Amino acid sequence: MDLSYGNDSHGAWQTYLAQIDRVAPYLTHLSDYINTLKRPKRCLIVDVPIVMDDGTIQHFEGYRVQHNLSRGPGKGGIRYHPDVDLNEVMALSAWMTIKSAVVNLPFGGAKGGVRVDPSKLSKRELERLTRRFTAEISPIIGPQKDIPAPDVGTNGSIMGWMMDTYSSSVGYTVTGVVTGKPIHLGGSLGRVKATGRGVFITGRHIANRINLPIHGAKVAVQGFGNVGSEAALLFADAGAIVTWVQDHSGTIYNENGLDLPKLVQHVAEHRGVKGFADAQVADDEDFWDASVEIMIPAALESQITVDRAQRLKAKIVLEGANGPTLPAADDVLVERNIVVVPDVICNAGGVTVSYFEWVQDMASYFWTEEEINERLDKLLIQAINDVWSSAEEHQCTLRTAAYILACERILEARQERGIYPG
Ligand code: NAD
Fold it and tell me: Which of 76, 117, 238, 272 is 20 to 30 A from 177, comparing alpha carbons?
């Protein structure tokens, strides 16, 4: 298999391979199996033709990649975005393998996507695209095979259409084929807020470990969507002062603390933080110079560059987004003693409650939000403690420690299963 697709040295898959190379020296006892991690198990590329509202036919390219299934069915979202390509989907699927294993969920890693700008489609076109894409990837998905979920550009309604299309093809309702569904279609309470909650739970835990008091700490958040806004609200509830927020519309700050409930309402009404009354406006680049103790990138990939890493004032970075720190910037943060809680554990609250949703669907028995949050907190604290112990044992960063822990679990499963045919 030629794995040089989109062979750009800055591609996401190349970043992932560099991360595996960094952790390989710690995995010499499993070195016979390390190449398992460097090759996706299965990549499916599909043509998705749909009839547009004006009667013309348009073709879109879709993907489902199952990176590793050694520990259980594939798990990972579906992205609708104009930049989706095989390189990106491969990397995102691999990061799901690592994330599931860090939290010790019985899942492998997968991811899918369609190269499309969903904002340019009508609701009917979006539904046709989703149903045809689901039909095309149906041979390899299923509640015991591979379980998609929402990601950038997709949501609960799209998961509802996916569930319905898959169920129609098998002849009965299969709620467990996707997670992130609306509650009345077998979705789980607590799923929407789970990722932001996980950022808070893991961040607070590590802050305690490094003796950084949350009460009175100043916080900057990039991205005030699902993940960033919930994390900000929980930190404020715990006594932190959220002073800087940046989103796609601009950057605002209030050194006395932003009024978050009002900001949530403003963003819902105006689709961005721009124009919020009780704050001052800053240049976007000034965000990275903010005088804060806690920095939460919760928007996009590749935000913390070497230059920004050199300027950060924060003592701790909580990676709410996937891949917000470039590998070279990671090294700068280490040199500067800035602790990074890596994405594979920091934002794993979402996949953890997706796991709970799948379990509830399989049992057709649903838990209360209290039960969900209790179980979520327990699993994440167990995982972050494991990562901390691994970092102490190997004298390495939390990111390397998380990768050691995850890769050991994945490769030990591979070793115990053996290579077929033996
Ligand atoms: P969202 O769409 O709800 O919010 C995204 C936020 O990022 C918005 O506030 C948007 O304005 C902001 N943003 C977009 N472009 C920006 C730019 N150029 N500069 C600054 N801000 C910008 O998305 P989300 O679900 O909150 O996801 C955010 C990140 O968290 C993504 O990296 C996603 O992959 C990751 N993540 C999300 C989940 C989840 O359960 N939602 C789980 C794991 C990881």
Answer: 117
Say if residue 261 is preceded by a cis peptide, omega within 30 of 0. Answer: no
299 in ligand 1 pocket by Cβ < 6 Å?
Answer: yes
Burial of 145 from C-beta contacts in 10 A (0-12 / 13-18 / 19+)? middle
pLDDT along the chain (422 residues), means of 10: 43 89 95 96 98 98 98 97 95 96 98 97 98 98 97 93 98 98 96 96 98 98 96 98 97 98 97 96 98 96 94 98 91 98 97 98 97 98 97 96 98 96 88
**Atom 19 (ligand 1) nearest CA:** 248
DSSP state string for 128-141: HHHHHHHHHHGGG-
Neighbours of 344 (CB within 10 A): 29
pLDDT at residue number 110: 98
Please report the pLDDT score of residue 67 as a whole number: 98
Residue 313 among known ligand-binding residues: no
* 321 ligand 1 Cβ < 6 A: yes
**Given this model, what pLDDT does residue 4 score?**
40
Whether the CB of 298 sits within 6 Å of ligand 1? yes
Q: Which residue is it, tokens 């409650």? A: 353
Angle CA 384–385–388, to nearest 5: 85
Neighbours of 314 (CB within 10 A): 24
| Domain 193-346 in the same topology as domain 41-173 | yes
* pLDDT at 11 (0 to 100): 81
Question: Rounded to whole angstroms, how far apart are CA atoms 247 and 257?
Answer: 17
Count the neighbouring beta carbons within 10 Å of the beta carbon of residue 285. Answer: 12
Is residue 38 among the annotated active site residues?
Answer: no
**What CATH architecture does domain 41-173 belong to?**
3-Layer(aba) Sandwich (3.40)
Cα-based torsion angle of the residue sequence 62, 68, 73, 74 in order, rounded to the nearest 10 degrees? -30
| pTM exceeds cut of 0.85 | yes
Which residue has the least CA distance to atom 6 on ligand 1? 223
Q: The tokens of 192 are what?
A: 């929407």
Residue 150 forms beta bridges with which residues? 78
